[in-house]
Amino acid sequence: MERLARLVIRHRRIVFGLWLVLFLAGGFAAGKVPDRLGIDFSLPGQPGDTAEKHLVEAYGTSSYDTFIAVVTVPEGQTVEANKDQIAKIFTDAGAVFPKVRLVDLASTGDPAFVSDDHRTTFALMQGPQPTSFAPGPEANLRPALEQAAKASGFTTGVTSYGLLSAGNSSNEGPSVLAETMFGALGALVVLIFVFASFLALLPLVIAAVSILTTFLLVLGLTTFSDVSFVVQFLIALIGLGVAIDYSLLVVSRWREERAHGHDNETAVIIAMKTAGHAVLASGVTVAISLVALVVVPVPFLRSMGVGGMLIPLVSVAVVLTLLPAMLTTIGPRVDWPRIRHEGTASKAWTAWAKLIVRRRWIAAGVATLILGLLIAPVFSLKIGQAGIESLASNGPAYDTLATLRAGGIESGVTTPIVVLVPPDQAQAAADAAAKVDGVQFAVVGGDAPTLGVVDVIPTKETVDSSSNKVVDEVRSAVEGVVDGDVGITGAGATVGDYFSAVYDKFPYVMALIALITFVLLMRTFRSVLLPIKAVLLNLLSLAAVFGAITWFWQMGHGSQAVFNISATGALTFWLPVIIFAFLFGLSMDYEVFILARMREEYDACGNTNEAVVVGLARTGRLVTSAALILFFAFAALASSPGTDIKVMGTALGVGILIDATIVRALLVPALVSLFGAYNWWLPAGLAKILRVEPSPLRPERAVAEPDEEPAPVSV
Q1: What's the CA gap between 190 and 629, in Å, rounded?
Q2: HSE (side-chain half, CA atoms, 13 Å) at 342
Q3: Which of 115, 133, 215, 549 has minimal Cβ neighbours within 10 Å of its Cβ?
Q4: Closest Cα partner for 45 from 299, 230, 420?
Q5: What span, in angstroms and rounded, lies between the C-alpha atoms of 608 and 680?
Q6: Cα angle value 353/537/298 (rounded, 5°)
Q7: How far, in Å, CA of 613 to CA of 515, rounded?
């Protein structure tokens, strides 16, 4: 770190020039990246994904999202009396797709396509598989349907699970840029409080350079790999929070060293050796937790892991090069007016740290109890997709679904089970599937020479482990009457595939992340016990987060009041993996910030309690401020219109607050105080392997306990 700092200071003009070029190129790339992102949710090798490929090969269409086109005739008329005219309306509207698989009353003759009052009918339409997140032909379906029915005076509408999950039409949500600006405004307020000078602007500059440079790298990544559309939100908002947090730590330490009488250049070097080292360890930890997703055989999650990994790595690179160059050049001039001084530790946090050390057993017990209450709901966690009730609550797609429901057609129509069988056995498969409990009806929806298709409409949407049982029952029923291969695709099959593809391997991902993090932290803290405790507390903190969002979102205790969204009934299958990967690394940031300072103070004073008090007093305000900055970024993320993005934003925001308050400001210092000298033990043999200085177990130096008489403490 010292060599890097001196190199940057000596060649700061080159550093400025390099990052200026990347900043400008990144500004250009940021406008191009959204068009290059994809929505590939494929699961190679899984049964449902294989069946989906067969469907695309035979019909050129996909079950990714089934659009339900609806026509309602005026009062006094019936669907049956206008059957031919309605069929033409559906056919004309379906022409917006290059290829379409259209299943309706005319093609099947099944009265199940007609509502109870005989005034409403619908058609199932499946178009080609989308290749990007940009609107496709389906965006023209509703206008085309309205135009086709215009002369007849019929009422029309279009709905689907995808259209409903996109959010209420009255709230399209802010753009990525608007969300970033909202997060930046909240961060600026916190930075002004922390620095009380124009230094508050430096972390924002660092964040801007980091975000745009990351967009530039992701643009390059899209040239040879598919990258998920979610990555753009993560870069903008998590990149904002991470870059500012890292800058906050380094700048605060620089101010502290200047307040201690060091000249500007020396202060920069010391800040890099101490805070810079912690930033490097933190960034690598976050990157590791994300890149570990490459072991999951899901392209969508792999791309998020690789794309997300770039966020902390770029932020670390900018903070460790551009920031010291800026501090050396303009730091003292922008540190004005100097209302707040860093020469002494925060009095409030010093008093808090002394209280925790003095009442360490009570502090540990209270923190454990709170975490236990938060964790309790996690045992009711369901993984799948959000239920229909938690999606849009108004707008055209919602109104169209309400029309179907009013006519006795249940919401399961939005998630049809697509069964693939030999063409000559399609009718037998439809008859068998129709008899399964939980199925509204089943019809033959395609008779290509090589592949027959049966559309099975469940009563309820097949989105989680409970409602998804009907998919397995349909499979069993069809296999009982069909000779040959049976394939099943659709939303329900996708949920089942994710369980086998992701969650069967998820424990290995967790173990890999924990192991690499443990080794990295042993080098950082020169300790065996502290890394074990850090990993275990991180897992405990994550369990509390999942318990909280299960209670809030899945059970609906607050989602309606805060977001006007009903209980989701389940968490979308990809969310827990992403939430775990990001939060494990981001939460570890604060562990590294606090414990690295405690380790530094222990090496100086030789007493654990003193190290806890000084370390927490020096980092408590920074960690709290950093958590608030990330919270504002995640609050901006939660303002997106889609329910899944809202769930992710609230989970990350709540996770950061839980970790920075209950865990890092209460439980961590209490446990470090309880473990005493054992916190710092690293045997010589292990230290040699890790290539760090050993830390033998030794008696602690006698210092005064908080508010008590001095007393020696032995190992």
Answers
A1: 7
A2: 25
A3: 133
A4: 299
A5: 9
A6: 140
A7: 29
Q: Which fold has domain 349-386+498-696?
A: Multidrug efflux transporter AcrB transmembrane fold (1.20.1640)
Confidence at residue 703, expressed as pLDDT on a 0 to 100 scale: 64
At 483, the amino acid letter reads: D
CA–CA separation, 208 and 315 (whole Å):
10
Output the pLDDT for position 281. 87
For 6, 248, 272, the CA distances from 318, given in Å and listed in that order, are 16, 13, 13
Low-confidence ranges of the chain (pLDDT < 70): 131-135, 167-176, 341, 465, 641, 703-715
Give the separation between CA 693 and CA 119, rounded to whole angstroms: 81
Give the separation between CA 20 and CA 22, rounded to whole angstroms.
5
Q: What CA–CA distance (Å, rounded) separates 41 from 228? A: 9
Q: How far apart are CA 178 and CA 504, in angstroms?
A: 38
Q: Work out the end-to-end distance of the chain between its first and last CA atoms, rounded to an integer number of angstroms.
A: 33
Give the whole-angstrom CA distance, residue 32 versus residue 242. 23
Residue type, 23: F
Q: What 3-state class would DSSP assign to 388?
A: helix
Question: What's domain 1-36+196-221+228-339's superfamily in CATH?
Answer: Multidrug efflux transporter AcrB transmembrane domain (1.20.1640.10)
Cα 448 from Cα 454, distance rounded (Å): 12
For 93, which DSSP code?
H
Q: Measuring CA to CA, which residue among 566, 493, 492, 579 is closest to residue 538?
A: 579
Q: Helix or strand or coil: residue 129?
A: coil
pLDDT at 170: 40
Peptide bond into 143 cis (omega under 30): no
Output DSSP code: residue 699.
P
Pairing of strands 700-704, 710-713: antiparallel
In three-state secondary structure terms, 576 is helix
- As given in the structure block, the two tokens for residue 274 are 């101490």
Q: Which overall architecture, per CATH, does domain 67-159 show?
A: 2-Layer Sandwich (3.30)
Give the list of residues 6+ apart from residue 513 with CB closer than 8 angstroms, or none.
288, 289, 292, 581, 584
* DSSP three-state, residue 526: coil
Quickly tell me which residue has 């925790």 as its tokens: 356
CA-nearest of 597, 591, 612 to 535 is 591
* Residue at token pair 């939100």: 233
Please say whether the beta carbons of 30 and 222 come within 8 A: no
Contact 142, 158 (CB under 8 A): yes
* CA separation for the pair 352, 535 (Å, rounded): 25
- Token pair for 293: 């997703």
| Structural domain boundaries in the chain | 1-36+196-221+228-339, 67-159, 349-386+498-696, 400-497
Furthest C-alpha separation in the chain: 96
What's residue 715's pLDDT?
38
Structure tokens at 333: 């001039």
The top-level CATH class assigned to 400-497 is alpha beta
What gap in Å lies between CA 239 and CA 206, rounded to an integer? 10
In whole angstroms, give the CA distance from residue 229 to residue 684.
48
pTM, rounded to two decimals: 0.81
Rg, Å, the chain Cα set = 29
Check residue 80 and give its pLDDT: 93
Q: Of 141, 136, 127, 50, nearest to 92 (Cα)?
A: 141
DSSP E strands in 591-685: the ranges are none
Which 3-state string (H, E, C) describes 150-168? CCCCCEEEEECHHHHHCCC
Residue 401: CB partners within 8 Å, gap ≥ 6?
Answer: 68, 159, 164, 388, 411, 414
DSSP 12-43: HHHHHHHHHHHHHHHHHHHHHHHHH-B-----
